[in-house]
Amino acid sequence: MPEETSDLAEVRLQKLQQIEALGLDPWGQRFDNAQPIEQVIALPADLPEDQRPRVRIAGRITSRRSKGKLHFLDISDASGHPVTRRTKGDQSGKYEATEYIGLSSTVQVMIGQNQVGETGWALAQLFDLGDLIGVEGVFGKTRMGELTIFADKLTFLTKSLEPHPDKWAGMQDIEFVLRHRYLDLTYNPLTLDRAKKRVKIIRTIRTHLDAQGYMEVETPTLHAIAGGAAARPFETHHNALDIDLFVRIALELPLKRLLVGGIEKVYELGRVFRNEGISPRHNPEFTMLELYQAYGDYRSMMDLTEGLIVACVDILGGGRTIPFGEKTVNFEPPFQRAKYADLFREHVGCDMTDEVAVRAAARAENIELEMAPTKGAPKVAKAHVVLVQELFEDLVEEKLVGPVFVYDYPSPLCPLTKRKRENPAIAERFELYVHGMELANAYTELNDPITQEQTFTQQLAGLSDEDSMAKMDHDFIRALRHGMPPAGGLGIGIDRLVMLLTNTQTIRDVILFPLLRPEAK
């Protein structure tokens, strides 16, 4: 701890002892019937002094100022009402939007020596930024017109022993903010606003799905086989059973087993873990929605996804055209729908089935045509479909303004997806894109156990025996052999959805506790 910080902490510790000497509990007691500050500041404030409403609040001291025999505090709580401003939503300047810049959950408190008495005044001298207190008094305006609680009773609730940052000046370092999310929530209204909106979005998803007859379930986090996606898992060991296990990389396979069991509409909102990179759109631990509907298909999932996302947009109350960075997104349905092959032809300039043209396009984009050698093995040419997908990612995705459903993918990319009967080279899959960011992924689910076993075998053929993904989930195949109904399935990355709907550019800002390296000693 730096010497200056240590000195400040020592002063706070001395104040704690002084509070105890006043006969008060520095860690507080039960404090009932506190009114949310949001409700207090909505009360009439221009009434004569003898008609001012009496109020009772509890919160944290976020600012303090002394003027002779008066103390002024800013007290904040978690209630908050939205603060907005008008903004230009695009470079043309034609579009204007109401931008939420945070929550106002702060009220000024004026403490006078005559009003709070000898003990209350002595207590007021011991307040620090970050302390939690209860305040009772009347609500009105000062001569300067500021909304204020004129305190006549103070209750000490908790002493903060660590120095708090001075408003924004101490909250500019990103590393500091992420490691001290509790302070970020206190002093940055945008962070609290995003957290509350995330809760609204998740609650809306549940309400929307429950109303359509979906059943929410919980499935295991620890799996004997890492399945349901192509991703590297985290590994662990169960001591009692003496077996290695994997932390789940997807929710898919257990939910499909429930389809076999007769739960015809099922979903899970759960944490998923992938031992992979960190980026503005990736965190190793993230939240997924996965759902399955018996007797549906990927077009059923398009309709469901559209309705679900529009419901989330509407619950936030900012209209259906919202800002995202310097861009805007119009969520007015129906969303655009475009075939993968058509978009590839438009933006790459050739047909995705033309192997010669695809290799030439990849070469022009400096895409490596050969696979890197492993353990002395020679390089081998990348499969045609791999080059197609790399070109799509490089040349097409960034041009997808959206929201747009991209559908009918090359089937080798989709081992869990039903093929089109008239063209087995195409899988009935869609991905939803908004400004180049993938938001949702859906299939007409493959329920043919024979084909499923074949595709699993092909998928695993190129992996080494040591690879954690190189294992066939025979129990899942057995479940399919008992009969899974034709179905549509959908996955939505909740963190990315919250990013989009709260105009947030990095995933770590919509996750309260993103993964960080251990703090340097």
Automatic annotation (TrEMBL):
Record: residues binding Mg(2+) 2: E438
Top-tier EC class: ligase
Coiled coil residues, start to end: none
Localization: Cytoplasm
EC number: 6.1.1.6
Keywords per UniProt: Aminoacyl-tRNA synthetase, ATP-binding, Cytoplasm, Ligase, Magnesium, Metal-binding, Nucleotide-binding, Protein biosynthesis
Gene Ontology BP terms: lysyl-tRNA aminoacylation
GO molecular function: ATP binding; lysine-tRNA ligase activity; magnesium ion binding; tRNA binding
GO annotation, cellular component aspect: cytosol
InterPro entries hit by this protein: Aa-tRNA-synt_II (IPR004364), aa-tRNA-synth_II (IPR006195), aa-tRNA-synth_II/BPL/LPL (IPR045864), Lys-tRNA-ligase_II (IPR002313), Lys-tRNA-ligase_II_N (IPR044136), Lys-tRNA-synth_II_C (IPR018149), NA-bd_OB-fold (IPR012340)
Parts of the chain that traverse the membrane: none
Gene3D superfamilies: Bira Bifunctional Protein, Domain 2, Nucleic acid-binding proteins
Residues that coordinate or bind Mg(2+) 1: E431, E438
Cofactor: binding details: Binds 3 Mg(2+) ions per subunit.
Catalytic reaction annotation: tRNA(Lys) + L-lysine + ATP = L-lysyl-tRNA(Lys) + AMP + diphosphate
Necessary cofactors: Mg(2+)
Annotated Aminoacyl-transfer RNA synthetases class-II family profile domain residues: 200-518
PANTHER family: LYSINE--TRNA LIGASE, CHLOROPLASTIC_MITOCHONDRIAL, LYSYL-TRNA SYNTHETASE
Subunit composition and interactions: Homodimer.
Family note: Belongs to the class-II aminoacyl-tRNA synthetase family.
Stated name of the protein: Lysine--tRNA ligase
